[in-house]
Amino acid sequence: MSFQFFLTVGTYFFQFFNFMIIANVLIRIVAPKSNGIIVQWIKGMTEPILAPVRKFATFKGMDFAPLTVVLIVEFLVTPLYVFLLIQLFQ
Q1: Which structural domain, as residue segments, surrounds residue 67?
Q2: DSSP state letters, 24-68
Q3: Which residues are bridge partners to 59 per DSSP?
Q4: Residue 85 — pLDDT band, cuts 50, 70, 90?
Q5: What is the pLDDT of residue 37?
């Protein structure tokens, strides 16, 4: 397996995860009481990450946890992943 393969798979994974967080936010805004299978799956995948962040990312009733997680993934996790891949494939 090559560096490019792992880079592509990781990039797609992080983009998919960010998409799931955005979908979770939209579901909570548009249909907060919906309980379909897809909604349960999206919430089941994102809530374990969002719940701990909500403890410190809520301000005056506004939930900034999704924004915080997306920013952490984009600016910390993804560059760290790329750095580790570079170190691994040198």
Answers
A1: 3-88
A2: HHHHHHH-TT---HHHHHHHHHHHHHHHHHHTTSEETTEE-HHHH
A3: 62
A4: very high
A5: 95
- Residue 88 is given by DSSP the state H
Asked if residue 22 lies in contact with residue 66, where contact means CB atoms within 8 angstroms, the answer is: yes
Contacts of 23 (CB under 8 A, 6+ apart): 42
With contact defined as beta carbons under 8 Å apart, do 43 and 24 qualify?
A: yes
Domain count, the chain: 1
Give backbone dihedrals phi and psi of 26, rounded to 5 degrees, phi first. -65, -40
pLDDT tens-digit readout, 39-64: 999 999 999 999 999 999 888 889 99
Q: pLDDT tier at 90 (50, 70, 90 boundaries)? A: confident
Q: What is the distance between the alpha carbons of residues 24 and 9, in angstroms, rounded to a whole number?
A: 22
